[in-house]
């Protein structure tokens, strides 16, 4: 899920936040279970074992080997023997087996590990940094569980989305899969944000509202951008789905650009430098569609972003052009790097009916006068907190005839609407996105899979 650059946001934003100082006590409570202690288990000890098991995520989709990565102890040998005899658990098609069943140890596979280089080489072996990492294990493990759900759900979606399906069917396939595999349960685990399935010149923030009859066509370019969270740790990852190979170069451009951004990312790296590297790679591509050649342009007013617990858009934006931002990435930061390539202008604006909404992180102090709006706001706080939602998610928790109330919450700044973002009609846009964390000793690309 992408973030809009501030200049456009200022011009077009639906609601305004208020200063931190005006925050009410209630305002801070809705984001999720604050101060929630992650369960303590033997996980810290097991980290070493899990780290040496790089292939885990590749195999997990097909078969999972009991708790082979579980704690090393005196009984290790015995345990392993027993596990090898046990029948390996295999994910079903469509996926129905939750991660906690596929991984009985509750230790989830690591993402791709990238060692730091040059000035940060010392971190790889530093004792203090390693100790810090062990302390953070539960946090990483939450993110890895969400990432494994993402990989398995997207694998199923890529194999099964076919021309002729409605956009609602596509979203429900992904959302049902996510809810089942992550064992959706209030703020403990669930969907991270609305399932984006923006088509063609629509770059982002389209998901169908109820009654939308749109059907995906053979010639469409569809950005599947969905999120999974565990204890508020959100995996935000996207790919572009096409059926016609004519778009292959457009897709290659965004994949290469995103991988470049992820590769360049590191502690103390300037955000503007990452944008510059992404832009250079993106602009090295062209794509021929219908006998006409188009340069691939990065969409310059869309960005990646840092991610905080229960907050999909943290305070840092990762540009996809060289904007000169000197802000540095820091140890412990989680990021979604996402790049958008376009055959159009390379600039998006708002258009069409809004489906995506999100609660202001800091709730405005202004009272909500309409009783209907007050009730709706309570539902939103209870069901989503600060996690973005769409109209279909309000429908499924039983809300009806809420549009007037929702619009009034947008006017008062309690909720922001995020309308679809479009380039010029007739253009095609593609997206690629990964989530990673800058651990103290290495960079972990959490959402990496054997597909992308
Ligand atoms: Co995103």
From TrEMBL:
Q: Where is each Peptidase M24 domain found?
A: 143-341
A Pfam family (short name) is Peptidase_M24
Where is substrate annotated to bind? Answer: 205, 313
Q: Which family does it belong to?
A: Belongs to the peptidase M24A family. Methionine aminopeptidase eukaryotic type 2 subfamily.
This chain's protein is named Methionine aminopeptidase 2
Source organism of this protein record? Entomortierella parvispora
Q: Name one GO molecular function term.
A: initiator methionyl aminopeptidase activity
As given in the record, the signal peptide range reads none
Return the HAMAP family for the record: MetAP_2_euk
Q: What remark does the entry make about the cofactor?
A: Binds 2 divalent metal cations per subunit. Has a high-affinity and a low affinity metal-binding site. The true nature of the physiological cofactor is under debate. The enzyme is active with cobalt, zinc, manganese or divalent iron ions. Most likely, methionine aminopeptidases function as mononuclear Fe(2+)-metalloproteases under physiological conditions, and the catalytically relevant metal-binding site has been assigned to the histidine-containing high-affinity site.
Chain residues that bind a divalent metal cation 1: 225, 236, 433
Cofactor(s) recorded for this entry are:
Mn(2+); Co(2+); Zn(2+); Fe(2+)
Q: Where is the composition biased (Acidic residues)?
A: 46-66
Keyword DNA-binding carried by entry: no
Where would you find this protein in the cell? Cytoplasm
What does it catalyze? Release of N-terminal amino acids, preferentially methionine, from peptides and arylamides
Q: Which GO terms describe its biological process?
A: proteolysis
What positions does the entry give for a divalent metal cation 2 binding?
236, 305, 338, 433
Specify the domain of life of the species encoding this protein. Eukaryota
Q: Which UniProt keywords apply?
A: Aminopeptidase, Cytoplasm, Hydrolase, Metal-binding, Protease
User: Where is region (Disordered) located?
Assistant: 1-97
